[in-house]
What we know:
Distance between the termini: 41 Å
Order of helices and strands: HHHHEEEHEHEEHEHHHHEEEHEEH
CATH topology of the largest domain: Lambda Exonuclease, Chain A
CATH class of the largest domain: Alpha Beta
Radius of gyration: 42 Å
Number of domains: 3
Strand content: 15-25%
Structural class: alpha/beta
Number of helices: 13
Helix content: 25-40%
Amino acid sequence: MADYATPHQFMETILSGPLQGRRKLLERLGTEARDPIEELLASALEFETSGTPSLQPFLDWFARGDVEIVRDPSAPLDAVRVMTVHGSKGLQAPIVILADACVDPSRARGSFTSFELDRDTRVPIFRPRKDELAEPLKSQIELQDRLDREEHWRLLYVALTRAEERLYIAGALGAADRNGPPQTSWYAACETSMDGLGCEWEDDPVWGRVRRFGDAEVRARSASAAAEASKTALPAWLKQPAPVEARPPRPLAPTAPAEDEAASPPPTPESRAAAQRGKWLHQLFERLPAVAPAERERLADEWLLRSAGVADEALRRGLVEDALRIISDPAYADIFGPEALAEAPIAAVTPDGAVISGTVDRLLVLPDRIRIVDFKTGRAVPRSTGELPPSHLRQMAAYVAALEVIFPGRAIEAALLYTSGPLLHRLAPDLLAPFRAAA
C-alpha cells in the first residue's frame, strides 16, 4: 500500500482501519496525542495539493519542515498538566501544585548578563562577582536584579491565583539550604503568611507534616467509577468501516461541447464569415426581444456598429433584417416575446434515472404547452430536418425529456434556430423519439 497510496490515505488506513492505530495511540499516550495525530493528517493533505502525492516525497518534505502544534490550554482534561507559571496565565484548575517553590531567585540568575553600550546596543558579558562590580556596569546589573525580583513576586501572585479549590505549595531543598528554604523563595513568603494566619503544623498520613488554611475538600471521581466508565460497551458499528455509498447518476449536460459540435470540413474564408455572422445573430436574438419593436432596428444597428465592431453598413443591414424577420415571424413571435425566458437553466431526473442539466436559449411556459428554441451558430446550416446533426437532435431530445418531468401533462414544442442562415427548424415528436433513449 505504501507504494501506491497517497500519504493521507496510507496513514488514515492505519489510524482508522482494522489496525485501530488512533485508538491504540490515544490509549497509550493519552488525549494529548490527538492534536499531533490530526496535525500529521492535515500536513499530508496540504502536501498532496502541492506535490507528488506519494509517501517517500512526503516523508522527506515533512522531515525538513517545522510543524508547530498550538493546543487550547483552557480545554478541560482528565489529566495532570505540567506548566510554567508564565504558561498558566489566564487559566485555572481545581487543584494546583507549586512543585518547586523553594527556588532562590538570586541563584537562578545565570552566569551571563548584558551590558548597554548605548540606547540601541547591548552586548553579552560574563556576570562579574560582587566584589568585581564597577560603574557603569554595577548600576545596570543592580537595576536588572531589581526588575527580576519584581517579576519573581508578580509570578507568585499568578501562581497563587490559578487554583479553584485547592493549592499545594511544596519544594525541595538543596545542599545550600541548611537553614531551610531561602528567604526570597515563594515557599518562605507563603510560610510567613501562614504564620500571620495562625496556621499550625499538623501530621498528615499522606504528606507528613503540613500546614493548612481553609477547609474546602475536593471530591475527585473515584478510581472505580473511572474504571467502570472505561468498560462501557461500545456499539458494534463504531468499529466497522462505513458502507460504500451508492454513486449518484452522472449528470447529463446536453450542451457539452463534445456533443454539440457537428463534424464539418476544414473552414474556408466563406465558412468563417458565415460562422461569425451566426454569432452576431445569436447575440441579436438575445438582446432584441426585450426592446420595443419600434426601436429594434435602430438599436440593433447601433449595437452592431459600436459594440460588435461591424463597420460594413450592408452587412449590418442584412443582419438586422434577418434577426427582425425571425423575431417578428407570427409563428414564433411569442417565443421572442416578453413572456419568454432567455438563457433559462433546467435540471431534472428522468424516470429512467438520468440526470439532465443544461440551459436553453429561449423558453416559453404556457398553460397548455412549453416551447423551447435553441440557437446554433455552426458554419453548416441544415436545409431540411433530415440533415440535422444527430448530436443536435440528441440534445433537444434530452431537453424535452427534462421538461416533461418539470411540467407533466403539457406538450413540449422544440425548435432549432441556425443563426448562420438564419433558418428555423421545428422538431416534431416523431423526429426526436429515436434519440430519447440515447439522451
